[in-house]
Automatic annotation (TrEMBL), chain A:
GO biological-process terms attached to the record: pyrimidine nucleotide biosynthetic process
A GO molecular function held by the record: flavin adenine dinucleotide binding
Cofactor entry: [2Fe-2S] cluster
Residues given in the record as [2Fe-2S] cluster binding sites: 229, 234, 237, 245
Lineage of origin: Bacteria, Pseudomonadati, Aquificota, Aquificia, Aquificales
Organism for this UniProt entry: Sulfurihydrogenibium azorense (strain DSM 15241 / OCM 825 / Az-Fu1)
PANTHER family per the UniProt record, alphabetical: DIHYDROOROTATE DEHYDROGENASE B (NAD(+)), ELECTRON TRANSFER SUBUNIT (PTHR43513), DIHYDROOROTATE DEHYDROGENASE B (NAD(+)), ELECTRON TRANSFER SUBUNIT-RELATED (PTHR43513:SF3)
The keyword Zinc is assigned to this record: no
Protein keywords: 2Fe-2S, Iron, Iron-sulfur, Metal-binding
InterPro entries attached to this UniProt entry: Cyt_c3_hydrogenase_gsu (IPR012165), Dihydroorotate_DH_Fe-S-bd (IPR019480), FAD-bd_FR_type (IPR017927), FNR_nucleotide-bd (IPR039261), OxRdtase_FAD/NAD-bd (IPR001433), PyrK_electron_transfer (IPR050353), Riboflavin_synthase-like_b-brl (IPR017938)
Co-factor binding comment: Binds 1 [2Fe-2S] cluster per subunit.
Protein name, UniProt field: Putative [NiFe] hydrogenase, gamma subunit
Residue ranges occupied by any FAD-binding FR-type domain in the UniProt entry: 4-96
From TrEMBL, chain B:
One function term, GO molecular function aspect: iron-sulfur cluster binding
Protein name: Cytochrome c3 hydrogenase alpha
The 4Fe-4S ferredoxin-type domain, residue ranges: 244-276, 322-355
Biological source species: Sulfurihydrogenibium azorense (strain DSM 15241 / OCM 825 / Az-Fu1)
Pfam families: Fer4_22 (PF17179)
Organism classification: Bacteria, Pseudomonadati, Aquificota, Aquificia, Aquificales
Signal sequence interval, chain numbering: none
InterPro entries per record: 4Fe4S_Fe-S-bd, 4Fe4S_Fe_S_CS
Keyword entries, A-Z: Iron, Iron-sulfur, Metal-binding
PROSITE patterns xref list: 4FE4S_FER_1, 4FE4S_FER_2
Amino acid sequence: MKPYDLTEGKILKVYRENYNTVTVNVEVNLNNPKPGQFVMFYAIGRGEAPITIADYRDGFMVNTIRIVRDVTGYFDRVREGDVIHLRGPYGNLWPTNKAFGKDIIVVSGGLGLAATRWLLEEVIKQKHRFKNVISLYGAKSYDDILYREKIGEWEKEIDFRTILNIKNEMWKGKVGLITDLVKEIEIDKDSVVFMCGPDPMVNAVIEILKSKDIKKENIYVSLERHMKCAVGTCGHCMIGPYFVCKDGPVFNYKDIEYFYTKKGV
Amino acid sequence: MAFKIDITTLRQIYEKLKECYEVISPVYDNGVIQYRENPSFDAIPFGKTQIEYAGTYFVSDTEKNYISYVRPSNTLKNFLRPPQEVLYKVYKKDEKIYFESTHVKRPMAFFDVRKCDLKALSILDDVFINKNNYPDDYYKALRENIFIVAVNCSEVSNVCFCSSMNVDFNNDYMADIVLTELKDGFLLEVKTEKGKRLLEGLVLQEAKEDDIKEKNQVLTQTYTKIKKSINKENLKEDLYKKIDHPYWENIGIRCFGCSSCTQVCPTCFCFDIVERNSLDGSYSERVRVYDSCFNPTFATVHKFNLRDKISFRYRHWLLHKMAYWQDQFGDVGCVGCGRCITWCPAKIDIEVETNNVRDIL
């Protein structure tokens, strides 16, 4: 397979999540993507950006994009019916089978919810296979909350808890940090944790999980790094000896701990 | 098959190569011995020698022998993975986008490739083709049509340390023909069918047993001339253990972060893909260019720069060459050619630094 060839996709729906995030539904034929994988979105004259697959069913893909700069800025302006170009899927997947018969805890911070959305949907579908399903979601402010409708659905199915960083009159739930949610849950020692969020959040949550005696090999983290090629040749995404694009983005925490906790590696 | 030839026959071989290939051979230009496309046989810097130290380079004349110079300052990487390479031409017409993939195929012959560069080529093959799930078709297109005339070094420079970096003097790697300079002439060994075909029509004198013996002597002599070395035993484990050591800061203070070492390195493969656009937005080129882990924004995610200090960048580079590479591709990423030592304006020596880090208790 050629590494940089792009395929066509058609935008079916654009949904404005909040002030800096859009969710697009794309009609595209991908080769059997799995929860946890990502695609490279291309914008003419601007370049490519790695975007996680938030959902994929029979040729219909959901992607949530934070508008930051050149490439993502392009997706701020796409309209329904537009043709876009992308390649993928790349990377590995959330190993849900490792949690069969055990408590499963999904921790997501900010845009990290996009990377765990498809995972949550799959977990809910196979709810009977797990002892307990808990999902913890931390967002910065009331305006930052993603997938409001979906969260409503999930709350009916599983123990889904949300916490906001900043107080708001509209918000009746908890205010604080995601670590507060992790502290309050009661879980087995052999629970399996799936996590995606900014690096400081991951580090803080892992400290608390350690105090709860959760084993390192039962923690899976999805990482984000700068990427250009997505096939392990451009060198940008390296963390220690790992290429996030091909060895990740989902890592067993035990494997990466040594390099992940070192500054500047 | 081995023959003994003289300089006139060598010239004939060179001319034959020129008939079928774009020949790339070392020339002496602007005070530097470097690979150039399509020079003449007379441009080969026979009788010249490089004086190389950390941060120092000059060329002088010697009367020792013909091939008295060592590896050129640039590498095969410059031709097989060029500094600028157009991957796609993108046209926008009536709101539709068309891609045109631009594979360059040119038959190239490298005349005078040393063992370190051959080893580097096999390392690049692993990175781009053999150990990659998505073999790089641009690299492959250029790589498939090359002819290699390898040369066994009879001289070494002060910065060479290939003997301790997995470079096997007795292995001819993917060379088509191999040359060794003897006291009175050259030993020509033919290694492939391609090499045999090239020599068709030339009247050559079979090499005698003594000539082969002399070649082995040359190899042993060269081997003993190399002074620098890195002990590879437990190299990876040792470096991983010392990843936090304050000595890296010491290097960080001296290093300019200029990325010179990564540009001359024969195995550094990192790249960036940039877009080259027309002003009206109807045409865009996706261009692959060299990038370097010394580039300040190399590891930036959003606004976070993960390696915001030069010491972090130097450590990443050295560890990648000496340790990470072993985990990624099963071999060290350094071939000990010493180019990064010569061309470092801060006179930082990868061999000295690696040994320093290892010697710290």
